[in-house]
Design goal:
Helix Hairpins; about 60 residues; elongated; single chain
């Protein structure tokens, strides 16, 4: 993930948020096949936000 550009990370973040929404919807209607995927997506979102925050802070420090 660290090799991706800021634009790629933002795009992936949007995709993961959309997937998280769909997974929550499936969970509410009992159609979820892989419940662990919710946790994976949530953690991936956190990883991307952390990377974005690190990059923002390092850019401000310069």
């Amino acid at each position: 993930m660290r090799t991706k550009t800021d634009d790629q990370l933002s795009e992936q973040l949007v995709d993961l948020k959309r997937e998280a929404f769909n997974l929550r919807f499936q969970a509410a209607t009992n159609q979820l096949e892989r419940p662990a995927r919710i946790r994976e997506v949530r953690r991936d979102i956190a990883r991307i936000k952390t990377l974005q925050n690190e990059r923002t802070r390092s850019a401000e420090a310069k």
